[in-house]
Amino acid sequence: xxxxxxxxxxxxxxxxxxxxxxTRWNPDFSLKAKCFxxxxxxxxxxxxxxxxxxxxxxxxxxxxxFEEGILNTTEINQRVxxxxxxxxxxxxxxxxxxGEEVRMVVNGKVQTRRLLRERVLDRALELIEKxxxxxxxxxxxxxxxxxxxxxxxxxxxxxxxxxxxxxxxxFDRALADLSEIVPILLLQDKxxxx
Amino acid sequence: MELRNYFAxxxxxxxxxxxxxxxxxxxxxxxxxxxxxxxxxxxxSESRKTIWKILFGDEPMPEGKxxxxxxxxxxxxxxxxxxxxxxLEELLRRANY
Lengths: 194, 97
Fold this sequence. Notes:
The structure holds two protein chains of two kinds.
Chain A: E1 9-12, H1 14-21, H2 27-41, E2 46-49, H3 51-67, H4 73-88, E3 95-97, E4 101-106, E5 109-114, H5 120-130, E6 134-138, E7 143-147, H6 151-162, E8 167-170, E9 184-186
Chain B: H1 3-21, E1 28-32, E2 35-39, E3 41-43, H2 47-56, H3 70-74, H4 88-95
Antiparallel strand pairs in B: 1-2
């Protein structure tokens, strides 16, 4: 059973932010996302948001506002930006917002690291080829779903490893296949972070 | 180890972790499975500004707060912007996320 410990450093997958800001799509996941971010805000955990997470978040959030009936792009983007602005007001000592290059303190020395190293595209391709995912029946949606890795999922894992995160936190079960790169913590699992 | 000692150590460890987490840049040493782990600290003081500039240009960057009620305040904030009485099942099906 995987359980996080106080002081652990998490890489945040996009779906955590999506469920936190949009609460009526899956209220159960939303509550768990809230509980997790609350622990980050209260300095129980440290969490990292990368440019890739932000890019995906902007994309999904635009879709959500559109699907909910907002038909003006300016209006949609103002709302999305408001959400990102909110992220900037979280505890800056525990919610890290990193860019492509990030300064890290390792054994008392400051290093600048790039989030993605060379050959990550080849390695991502290897991973996608290796893990073919699985099909399951989703009782909530009453249909079969195919859970499998995306290119972005692989890059999230590489970035999390580069940032020396203890976990990649997500609600997406497809990412479990990436545990050979970085430990994956599924927030929907009962004892993951509570 | 006696249980009361375990809880005393755990409490001390939590206090130290909280103190260290509250500093802007740090290397945190903590115990995992009986061995001391040295965790690399992230200094995002510059990178968060870079990201802000990409997304917001010259708009002033908000300051982070250690307000413990912040998460509660933002949770579901955007629900009030959304249409009422939508077919949620249909939305979920389309989102497939």
